[in-house]
Write a structure and sequence with these properties.
Blueprint lengths: L1 H12 L36 H11 L11 H31 L12 E6 L12 E7 L6 H4 L50 E6 L10 H8 L8 H13 L17 H5 L3 E7 L9 H22 L4 E6 L2 H11 L1 H4 L2 E7 L12 H20 L5 E6 L19 E5 H4 L25 H15 L8 H12 L8 H16 L1 H9 L5 H22 L4 H10 L1 H11 L7 H38 L3 H16 L1 H20 L7 H26 L3 H10 L3 H14 L3 H16 L1
Parallel strand pairs: 3-4, 3-5, 5-6, 6-7, 7-8
Antiparallel strand pairs: 1-2, 2-4
Helix pairs in contact: 3-16, 3-18, 3-20, 5-13, 8-9, 8-11, 8-26, 9-11, 15-16, 16-20, 17-20, 17-24, 18-20, 19-20, 20-24, 22-23, 23-24, 23-25
Length: about 725
Amino acid sequence: LCALMDDKRTIRKRRRPASTTLASTPALFPTPIGTRSSNGPACERVGTNKALQTSLHHDVTGNSNTKGRYGAFDYAIISVSLAIALATAAFFVHGFILRASFHHGQECDMTYSRFKFLPIEVSNYTAGARPYRLLKFVDARDLRNLHLWKDDSIDATQSSPHDDGSKVHQLSDNWCLLPQSNFTAENGITREAPYPNPGHPVLFIPGHWGEYKQARSLGAHGTTFTRRSHSYKYQNDVVRGLKDGTLNGIVSDGSDDDNDGNEDIEHFIYDVYTADFDGEGAGLHGSRLVRQAHFVAQSILTIAKACNAQSITIVGHSIGGIVAKAVPLLSTEVSQYIKTIVTLATPHDGFPYAFDSTVKRFYNFIDEGNSKKVKEGREVPMIVSISGGLRDELIPPSICSVDPSLGLTMLATNVMPSSTAEGTMADALFGCDHKAISWCHNVLSVVRTIIVLAATGGSLLGTVETRVARLRKHTKLDIVNHDYAEALRTEEQSFFISYGYVKAAALQATMPYRAWEFVVLYFIVASVQSLHAIVSGSLEIVRTCKYVVFLPVPLAFVFIHIFPLKWSTFVTTTALSFGSCLFYAVILHCILPLLSSLYDTICRRKQRQPKSRESKESWFLKYVYMHMTLVSVAIAAAVMYLYHFVRGHPTVLNGLAARSVIFWAMVLNAFAQLLWSSARDSNRTSKLMAALFLPILPFAVAGKLAHTLSLVSVGGQVDDQAGAHFFRGC
């Protein structure tokens, strides 16, 4: 359509008498073909469009009465490709519309709390590029921690302020609430707590771009204050139990099957601590995962020392669960405290957004380390993985499973009783979305039970059937399927039956975790078409339409055999293949020609301006084009150092920082050159390269850009040394 419309616009612009010759129309061609304009390189394309000259030449030489440019077969191909384009666009639009109603958050009951977070000093921690922190969750109604944050201007009976305070609590402040009999010279605690009743320590690790405040729902379940409002009697009973120690973090041995353990669960409390990674995107580069794991290790040592803890349960959300799995492998001293790791929507089988190879190497380090421990007969932490199910838009449930020898995997659907608030039973059939699993009351009530069983030290040991049976007894849930893969297939069948095949496929094809798959398909499509166009020496819309019609299906078939992704199906991969072909066609035949047309329009306006101003502007554009590399270096340095200046990070200028700036400049220069050449040159190779690399380049360099951005700061270079040492060891 773009090509046909361009032809019509061209015909309207070139109305000339049939007797006109090419030589008698100098106004149409201010410069001969292939020569440079007197206005400088900024306007070289004006009047030199090859397609326009060819069509004009046919008209002015009397060939306007020849047959059309396209034959019947070509028009049939264009018609079929147009129908495919409309159908594919409707398919994806329908999928995005369905997602708006599919991820409504009503499948779960909300967990409420009057939360406050107290910063805690982490021993032996050196700050890096990001100001990591350790914080303790407290509820305003929990009088055990009131002496740590109470202010005369704050009424403890009202909602607490949600800020995390300004005071950083030291080890001597007794923020773990130990009784005086546990004070030792080693832990250095000097302050006595009014109500010395510590709970079982639990450490929450947020995921990619996650926030520490996601721990507030988990913390609410630790003290059983989980609803918007509780009865006066219930609240008084809980407060009294927290003060006198009736509610505590002590549990009996849960190995006795005659004891149902319900009394332990009802009177059990745990205290939640959370890591604050300053909203860092850990999945962008492996070095970020390494420094987060080192910080978590130091945080565990701090908590264990302050609480005299024998074990600490870790709860990790998303890729935070991967960080938790790496901690016992980094430090033998820390591994003795980690007995159980509970992961929520964690991609154990690979991060679907890992465009940087260092993330894959971090995963390999964990897999090889755990395999080595198992072979040597050493203790490995028990992992309980709960996936979000089919409703999770960021992490597919097929990659959330763990080896049965290392732990237990369950769907959120299996552990979620039907919602009693906004949602219905149908809403709970397919799990919960990626963020909801961190606050879902239905899921966290089961996580609380898992923490109780983990605190007993042996209740989650044994075979998969034994663990599921014990968990089923304590949670009162009907968890009958021990095979996670079979449970997932059952959920998928219910999903396709409930929504229908087309709607279900549209929903799955538009999930964000299909980004990597779409990028790879686009790269293959663009590479094949670009190579064919360069070899044949022509760039035609009909050829692109042929690829849209004939390439996607065989490409999808080959793709699912080369890249056996667990979440892919032939139907959804075929839909993404059609989408990638159409996206390439839109960029090559619509967006880039529009840029060229806009460039030509600007140049024509410049030609009508006074000569002095025209020469001045042409000189400036010529200077920028010739010195684009130096301009890219200046822009990169300004952006990188300004970013750290705004965030208050101390910067440094040395060889490593200079190389980082040069890398940023190279990326900026590549983007600028691709855009500039595709708009300025009529050469088809420039447009093909722009259509191939412009959509791919951001994904290919995102991790490296994020990493090198931190290297112009003092803390970033400190982190880089630790990351380099880690990957050399790998």
